[in-house]
Amino acid sequence: MYYVRYLVRYLQNEVLVLPSRVIVLVFVASLLAFPLLTQDPNILRTLIVTALFSLYAVSWDLLSGYTGQVSLGHALFFGSGAYASALLSSHLSLPPYATVPAGAAVATAAGLLVGLPCLRLRKHYLALATLAFPIMLTGFVLAFPGFSGGEGGVWRIARLTSTRVAEYYLILGVALGAVVVLWRVVESRVGLIFHAIREDETAARALGINTVRYKLLAFALSGLTAGAAGALYAHSSAARIVAPGVVLSLFMSFQPVIWTIFGGAATIYGPITGVFVLYPLLDTLNVVIPKYRMLVFALLVLLILRFMPQGISTWIRDAIERVCPSCRVRNIATRRACRACGAPLQAQSPR
Amino acid sequence: MVANILVNGLVYSGVYAMLALGFGLVFGVGRVLNLAHTAFYMVAAYGIFHFASTGFAMPLAVLLTSLGIVAVGVAVYKLVIEPVREMEATVLIATLAVAVLLQEVVLVFFGNEPRHVPPALTGFTQVVGVRVGNQEMVTLIVAVLSLIGAWFLLSRTKLGLAIRAAAQDREVANLMGINVNLVTAVVMGLGLLLAALAGIAVAPLFTVEPGMWMNPLVIVLAAVVLGGLGSLKGSLIGAVILAFAEVSVVFLVPGGSYLRTAIALLIMVCVFFIRPEGLYGSSIAEER
Amino acid sequence: MKSLISCLALAVFAFGSAVSGQVIRIGVVGPMTFIQGKHHWQGATLAAEEINAAGGVTVGGRTYTIELVRVDSNEMQPGPDAVSAVERAITASKVDFLVGGFRTEAMLAMTEVACDYKKIFLIAGAADNKLLQGRVDKNYNRYKYLFRVTPARSTYLAQAAFIQLREVMDLFRHELGIAEPKIAILAEQAEWATPIVTFLSLQINAPLAVGGLGGRLVGTWRPSALATSLTAELTAIERAGAQIVFTVFSGPVGVVFGRDWGRLQIPVAAVGINVEAQAQGWLDATGGFGAYAATVGIYASGVEVTPTTVPFIEQFTSRFGELPLFTAGTYDALYILMDAILRADSLQTDAVIKALEATDYVSTIGRIVFDELHDLMWGPDYVTGIGVQWQDGTPVAFWPREWRPDPQKLPDLVISAPGTVPYVIPPWVRDHWKGK
After folding, report:
1. Mean pLDDT, to the nearest integer, of A198-212?
2. Mutant choice from C200, C221, C428 vs B, greatest count of B C-beta within 10 A
3. What gap in Å lies between CA C357 and CA C343, rounded to an integer?
4. Residue C411: which CATH number?
């Protein structure tokens, strides 16, 4: 009873006062309740892929948005996770609960392996060096078709669950859990250090922060998350086959960048918004106007970025919420005085 | 064998160098990583295809295509890129969206079938025992002439001075009374002119299809960083190295010629381990 | 008001069920923005129109018409699109059967979806062995829904190409006096091409006495399937001293080959597989440089493989303005399916599968009989394909012509399809090698 009262009070005081938190709450609740509404396999499959890709986009945001280590070859992590779990499932018939963690572990190792030499590279050099890695891994996959399946890819991958609804809840659960954990990480001291490295690495080093260690941590965490997404993707009902033309393609590398920038970088919720807007949209366009779908998609991305260069979710958040100038607590835009310290809120947001 | 690698490598070098120089100029002056650069090259190839098949005289077709590309490119720069120029990641995605947009527009008008542009010269010549198409010679000559033209413009004219100044230090150049926004737009036009000429020059050699921008984009990006961002000499040398790397793979490892791009990129990554700022890049300029 | 709505709903429901009861929905799967997918659709359209015009299909006393559903698999850029397109066709468009498909990578995934939903999928366009091998034989109950109606599987394509290569090598021996012709293999880096390359690499160097080709393999080049220029590869092949190039292309790189090969007049004769060279637009696409290119094919001008070949080609050409590609084999697929449904006199999936397994049908490409893998039987009595070469601006057939499938055991068996002409060594190749 106490906990119920505590929960109610928490909701009243911390969640309902801010529209952005209400949106998150409603969003999560409706995702969880969605199968009660319809169990159409097509819609569920789209949502499954959307959830997986959100995880993938968040992993990019962690490394590139927060830490500033822009990766244009993120498909390397997604692909190595997908390939590792697919190969284990196909060659050794291991069950998914063994292959998915193994895939994520391989991708973590890939993160460290790429991160280590890339520590010396800065900005654009890093971005373009990472661009090369998935292409090189593709060459490797094509060179050993007997083991890797070559261009045709790996198949005979075990399914995660027997029903689509179970798969939906499983993937949604993993994605939600991972996002919550990552959210805690970026809100902690580690997150602050990530920001510091992005803004001024030299200054961060001067403060006695071992930036090398934290950059490697970002690479490893990002690889882990992207790898988990890739491994789950390999076993999901949307893939059924893991081929280099899909999971290691240039497009796969660019996608998390598009989603994150579209949604708003260095926010966690930005990339998720980006994926949940763009992926189902692309999927729908594919049914409605297949011929013009990429045209409409590119035009939309261009227009949004032209008028909301910080990303759509950042733009919306700034429109509906104000930061209190004296105590830095967020308030709904309609309030005159800060809900925490009572200081009058300026008409202009300090941003 | 050496002669084969040399001759084929030169032709590829010419094309890659034209693209890399334009890309490097735009990056150097505008700090814009223009992922749509090779998409304009693709549109130019379609432009020349369109004008050639509707019966325009070649010189007129070349003129119309290059002017069209420059006009569209500068307009895109002014409308889409300049307003968000300060945010690098946004620029990256905006230019990628422009590239996809161009590809899709071409797809709507011309469809997916590979197209063919008649060569300016047919036949072939034996050069040091190697069979070289006359069209390849034309392409190489166009590349060399354009590169010389660009070099002349950059080193011998006042505009070139302004461009180099803006490339070296945008803020100081601004203070010295150079209209850097104008210079950036001019450089964008110049870079796209080079891309358009490259597209026109290779159209008779390569298959013209909407996806033809992807592979050159990867190579150009690699060439520019390999040479060192911001260094025009570096871009050219990077392009030559990658072109020769690709061609050598075809001749030395025939069964692996699909690996040409992967191996060229491996070379780039290896260079980075030794020189993280590329061959001719300066680490100091990057810090700024 | 409420009763009005329920009345309306009932009417709609009744109407809907009445219509769907008389319709067989067939999903035509293919990359619809590419020529391969276009021909998937056009071949199926032709067959559906013919069948419907002839009164449809009568099963169990009820007459059904065929309705085609366009399933754009977007498989040239492989990704989740192919899977979602097929699943959507089955669950939302409610197709009863599926035909088509092109790229192995996408087909492996799409056929999994079809088997999940227990829908019969007649593969028309993908050649890879493992679409059926290792599936229908290993796990019949899951994969029994898959059949292949065109083309012959990779191994058999390689077999046909092997015989055609032998014919061209014989020409070099007899006409140019080259006892041991040198061969280069130029194959796109794709899944289906690899077994063909392996098979031929072994056969080329094997002496004639043991049934090999008695030639010399000078090298194998594997460019990317998306390469836009092959000048480096071709000059390397010339330098290696090859007289014949054996091509294995299914994608647009085939056009690149034709253009660069003719433009540079590389002194090698071409034979092998080049899907683009089956298309009517081949000469245009190669700027006229693709003359004398050759490929294992299915359709060509004037050649009569079976009695229905020529009428089909004429109809297709007059309706759509170009020669059918092999993916237009969806035409045969529809007829084979209808034939099975009529024999089963049922639309029940298992009954139709049983009937399909018993198929013995003369299609436009030969006699269709399925083996235990649900794959095409290949050979002189069944489907062989043809050899196509571009001569004087048209694709003509040069094989099977005076073909002796088994000279030892059956010396009298000589197969010549009506309308075939001899293979022609390109003039620049002949000039280059004459007297050397």
Report:
1. 90
2. C221
3. 11
4. 3.40.50.2300
